[in-house]
Structure prediction request, 177 residues.
Amino acid sequence: MILNERETRNEQVISIAKQMMTAARTAPKARGEDIVETITITHEHIKQLSDAMLEVLTPDGKRRFERDGNNILKAECIVLIGTRSMNMALDCAYCGYNTCAEKKKEVPCAMNNIDVGIAIGSACATAADFRVDTRVMYSAGKIAQQLGWLKNCSSVIAIPVSASSKNPFFDRPAPKK
Prediction:
């Protein structure tokens, strides 16, 4: 049997994305509450996300997420990680209020954001272990959240994944002024 890397690459990247999702799932979480949700999107869903990103305009009419919207088209898949909102009742004051009882309902619990950050770190460390290229993108995560792909989640972050000769998510052209 002869296996050509170019012919098996996409299958390998998808397998690594699955491992990234597992790493996000098993990452430590505040009070041990499992509020992290993950999915991976490919092909037509990447195109749908890109198109939606290109529709977002700044107040002066420029495409706000144009660079990232075009850049994700170079990904073989995108791992999305978010957290369901849950007040952790730790009275940590990281949200800006002294106690959880004082916090306004629409203000997210800071621990939820910390949890998603730790999950992202675990997922990206897994990707690095397999030497695939990634980039953490709030922009693609924000639009994926608006598309409703991670139900009841906030703080959604996207991690495009690629295995190419050069990381397509860095050294990107600067936004046009």
Notes: The CA atoms of residues 141 and 169 lie 15 Å apart. The mean pLDDT is 93. The chain has one domain: 13-85+112-162.
